[in-house]
Automatic annotation (TrEMBL):
Signal sequence coordinates: none
Domain TauD/TfdA-like residue range list: 39-300
Protein name as catalogued: TauD/TfdA-like domain-containing protein
InterPro entries the record matches: AlphaKG_dependent_hydroxylases, TauD-like_sf, TauD/TfdA-like
The organism of origin for this protein: Pomacea canaliculata
Gene3D superfamilies documented for this protein: Clavaminate synthase-like
Amino acid sequence: MHGYLTPQKVGEDKAARKRRWALLSSKAIPEKSEVYNTPTPNNLKRELPEIQYDDFKNSSYGVYRWLKQVNESGICLMTGVPAEDDMVHKVAEHIGPISSTIYGKTFDVVSTPKPINVAYSSVALDFHMDLIYYESPPGIQFLHCLRFDDCVAGGESRFQDLFHTAERFRRNSSKHFEILTRIPATFQKIHYSRYHLAFVLFNLVFQKTSVILYLFLNLFQIVGVNWSPSFEGPLATEEENVEPFYAAYEAFAKAIKNSTNILEYRLQPGDLISFNNRRILHARNGFELNGGMRHLKGCYVNIDHFKSQVQVFSRLSGDGQPPKRVGNQDWF
């Protein structure tokens, strides 16, 4: 029977849990999956997929190349995009309508004197996914570099394929991995001291596991990952789960921090990077402006709209290949 691995099996005794853990263990996972829609783990340190804006703009095949790279690798750099304020949403709308969030439809990543979000400061940001406290977090994220002065020291963007890291963690720390598929974390964004763009206070809290699996052909496939330490709330679970969870959480955090699969890249004006927020972790080195400016313009597009367009362009191009899994908890 195919189905999701639930966070907690009701009435599951120790023997049943042991059998389920055995199925999840590294011995049950093949070195290379034969499943057609399994994303290939991406070694970002070796290669960043890239496309020229002119190629994207001048042909539907260029659009498909871009979509396919984001789908298969989780990320793609588009170069030569005019450094104009509205270009990020013009590019993004080739996929679908811009997603509206508590930050509006687009947002400006600039360092401000009194930031309402840590992203709008100059401090370093650890690896995370955006807005993970939503039931359906943003799918594809776009960051367009409008200005990055040479005098700015630091501020490089960093990326990591969490599918890749999670698979390695499953092989190397299978007991910890099983715990993270079973005990849900709490993600939250709570503000009563200020208003957001729609002038409404907000209290967003959502429980979900760090790794979500789907059973197919007697193998558990990773179909979702959730990671955003800065926006985690109190753990809500049975007392017996607390210490095992945090031991597993710490081990996974170390695997992310010590990963050798990390890309570090300094965006240039005209660069637009698009990546799957459900798969690719992003971070940032701290920076000093030194009288200059670092300005990125961003927005999001729904993951289902993206997956739909990958399939549409695949069929229209004659390729006919189905999309790779995109981390939206769906096996297809």
